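User: Let's play a game. I give you a shape written as tokens, and you guess the letters that built it. Ready? Here's round one.
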């Protein structure tokens, strides 16, 4: 009888384990719901401050290796909260025009970092990051690191800097 009770207790614990584990793991995730947590990560890669954009959504303005960039929050509710996606972005005002052929070549050969010419013909570089349901801190730090890698490559290959 005692063995049956022990086996039953072990079986019950094993059945509950999957429902307990995701909750514990979820505490280690970060999402766009927490702009302050993203700001802390951004500060690990350079200067950064948290503001809001023209629609009231959070925005991080930062500088990485001398280049200004913004992190824009998307999918937010009407209060600028519960966002689910961010987009890194930077732009350059150029006297010398960059050709659409050069921009298209960048986009064709790069996996991340979408380039385009704005209405003034100036080059822009964006990188969207889906944070819906959360990602690990290491995953998000990797996105920051990747951004810090592609911007200098873009400056060299496209802008000639």
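Assistant: Ready! My guess for every position:
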């Amino acid at each position: 009888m005692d063995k049956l009770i022990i086996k039953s207790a072990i079986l019950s614990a094993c059945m509950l384990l999957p429902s307990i584990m995701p909750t514990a793991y979820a505490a280690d995730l970060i999402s766009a719901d927490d702009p302050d947590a993203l700001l802390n990560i951004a500060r690990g890669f350079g200067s950064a401050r948290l503001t809001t954009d023209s629609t009231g959504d959070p925005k991080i303005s930062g500088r990485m290796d001398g280049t200004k960039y913004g992190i824009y929050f998307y999918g937010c509710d009407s209060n600028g909260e519960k966002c689910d996606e961010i987009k890194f972005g930077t732009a350059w005002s150029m006297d010398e025009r960059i050709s659409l052929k050069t921009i298209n070549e960048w986009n064709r050969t790069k996996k991340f970092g979408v380039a385009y010419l704005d209405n003034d013909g100036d080059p822009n570089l964006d990188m969207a990051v889906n944070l819906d349901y959360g990602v690990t801190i290491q995953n998000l730090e990797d996105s920051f690191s990747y951004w810090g890698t592609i911007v200098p490559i873009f400056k060299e290959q496209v802008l000639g800097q």
